[in-house]
Amino acid sequence: MISTYQSPTRSKPTSTFKAKGRVLIACEDSQAADELVAILKKANLRPEWAKDFTSACKLLKTGKFHVVFATPRVSGDSWQKLMDFARGRGQALSFVIVARSFDLSDWASCLKYGAFEVLDSISEISRVGDVATQALSAAWALAGQASERHEIMELHDLTPFNAECPEVAT
C-alpha cells in the first residue's frame, strides 16, 4: 500500500493577526480621520478615532490599542506627549505620524523620537494599510519585550513611571 503525503491545511495567520489589531487614530480633522478609518477597515484592522488629546489618553488607558496613527498636533498637544503618556504607562505601541507638510528634518526628528513611520497624508495614503500591519507586528514584538521588562521590575520591586492623563472638563 502506497501512502501519499498530504500537507496540513494552513490558515492565513495574517487575517487573524490583523483582526486582533486595534488602531487608535489621534486627529482633529474628521475628514482625514474618516479616510484613515476606511483604509484601516479595508486592511481588516479595528480603528477607533479620538479627536482630541484627552480622549486619546483615555482610550490609551484601556490598553487595547497596539498602533497609533497621529497627526503632528492633537488639540494643541503633540504626538510626542501622547507617546510619552503611553511609554509612562508601560504600553508597547507603534506610532505612525501622518502629516501634510513635513520637511526632511521634521521627518528625521519624528523617527529619532521613536515614531515607527512618518507618512505624507497626500502622496503616501495608499501605504496606510501596509504600514499599519507592519507597525502592529512591531508593537506585538515590543509588547513581548515589555512583559519581560515588567517581570524583571517586579522581581527587583521597581515601580514604573506613571504618567497622568488630563481630566475631561464637563
Question: How would you describe the overall organization of this protein?
Answer:
The structure is a single chain. 29% of the residues are buried. The strands form two sheets. Strands 2-1-3-6-7 form a five-stranded parallel β-sheet, sandwiched between helices. Strands 4-5 form a two-stranded antiparallel sheet. A hairpin with a 2-residue loop joins strand 4 and strand 5. With 170 residues, the chain is α/β, with parallel strands linked by helices. It has a single domain, classed as Rossmann fold, CATH 3.40.50.2300. The chain has six helices and seven strands.
Give a quick rundown of the structure:
The chain is an alpha/beta fold and 170 residues long. It is built from 6 helices and 7 strands, in the order αβαβαβββαβαβα.
